[in-house]
Specification:
Blueprint lengths: L1 E7 L2 E6 L11 E9 L2 H7 L16 E8 L11 E4 L9 H4 L25 E4 L2 H4 E3 L6 H4 L5 H11 L8 E5 L3 H10 L6 E6 L2 H10 L3 E4 L5 H8 L5 E6 L4 H10 E9 L11 H4 L5 E3 L8 H9 L9 E6 L3 H8 L2 H4 L3 E5 L1
Parallel strand pairs: 8-9, 8-11, 9-10, 11-12, 12-13, 14-15
Antiparallel strand pairs: 1-2, 3-4, 3-6, 3-15, 4-5, 5-7
Helix pairs in contact: 5-6
Length: about 350
């Protein structure tokens, strides 16, 4: 079979690799039917995640069909169509028992495309399958379901819930990539007064408006702080969600939050960012970080089935498996391509 293999910083290839095999009784093998590329994959290619070794198959967001099950798998059968979560959970360790699956001590957490081979391939091994996959109803398309593998639970848990978005809040989202746009969608569930989105790409700001942002700020042209203060009587934002992962965007977030407000960092950082405690210590600001746990995935799936999550415009480009390299090129250059989320499918 073929897979998208990381060859070291800046290097990737769509190449022949061995077929996956059951390594643990709790594994399943899936035929990958639809898979997407995450901003984290770009961070890996940029050298920001040094734990990823050359030769690793990338990817942690997929929908597939079970083709083989380990002897310890009790809830899945060959032929089941499943969502493969970006987080694997042993279900036994202290963190899993607390629902903090991202911090699993039993061999799980974020491992797909990170510490073990991922899902950007024709077939993939899914560890701890009973706890790390979700059977999909027929009426949920592969295209919609794959967005629940990572970006929806990440934006919801690490952004909206960690930021404690409440009715009437002013929410600023820095970064209008897929995570930022998913934060717009999930923040709207809590009826904020304003959702302000900041990005440097006009096409992504247009998408933010389509998903429900009422104000957009073009970075480098508009003045974010002036915009936020004009909408809040000079106070600043109640919640600021960082959805990029650079020192500049994190530091911008801390300037936009009001005294007593919350900064929820979602972005993957590969470089140190300065924490200006000389300014923040007196302002009662709460800063949260986090890796998604995916405890919200069943609820998000229910909301998707009920029509409460409109994800119809999130996927902008679609490719066949033999076009995987092109899919990466398009996703990595959103300013020119207009890409939000790209889908690679059979």
């Amino acid at each position: 079979m073929r897979g998208l293999v990381y060859g070291g910083p800046g290097t990737r290839s769509w190449t022949e690799i061995p077929d996956p095999a059951i390594q643990d009784p709790r594994d399943v093998i899936i035929q990958v039917d639809a898979v997407t590329i995450c901003g984290t994959d770009l961070h890996i290619l940029g050298g920001d995640v040094p734990e990823v070794e050359p030769g690793r198959v990338l990817g942690h967001e997929a929908v597939g069909t079970v083709v083989e099950t380990g002897s310890g798998v009790g809830g899945l059968a060959t032929g089941d169509r499943v969502l493969a979560s970006c987080i694997s959970a042993c279900g036994i360790c202290r963190y899993c028992r607390e629902g903090a699956y991202g911090q699993c001590l039993g061999g799980g957490g974020w491992i797909l495309g990170h510490l073990v081979d991922g899902v950007q391939s024709e077939f993939a091994r899914i560890p701890f399958a009973d706890l790390s996959t979700y059977r999909l109803p027929d009426r949920v398309s592969n295209e919609s379901a794959v967005l629940l593998a990572d970006i929806l639970p990440t934006s919801y848990e690490v952004g909206v819930l960690n930021g404690r978005v409440r009715p009437g809040d002013t929410v600023v989202i820095v970064g209008a990539g897929p995570i930022g746009l998913a934060a717009v969608v999930t923040a709207r569930l809590y009826s904020p007064a304003h959702i302000i989105v900041i990005d440097k790409a006009t096409s992504r700001l247009q998408a933010a408006k389509m998903f429900g942002a009422d104000t957009t700020v073009l970075a480098g042209l508009d003045e974010p702080l002036e915009t936020v203060r004009s909408l809040t009587g000079g106070l600043g934002a109640d919640v600021v969600i960082e959805a990029v992962g650079t020192p500049q965007t994190f530091e911008l977030c801390t300037t936009l939050v009001r005294p007593g407000g919350r900064v929820a960092n979602v972005g993957v950082h590969g470089k140190p960012a300065t924490l200006h405690l000389e300014d923040l210590w007196i302002r009662n600001v709460t800063i949260t970080t986090g890796l998604v746990d995916t405890y919200s995935t069943p609820k998000l799936l229910d909301m998707l089935v009920a029509g409460q999550l409109d994800l119809g415009h999130m996927v902008t480009h679609r490719f066949g498996f033999e076009e995987f390299m092109t899919a990466y090129d398009v996703f990595a250059d959103p300013t020119h391509s207009g890409a939000l989320k790209v889908l690679v499918h059979r």
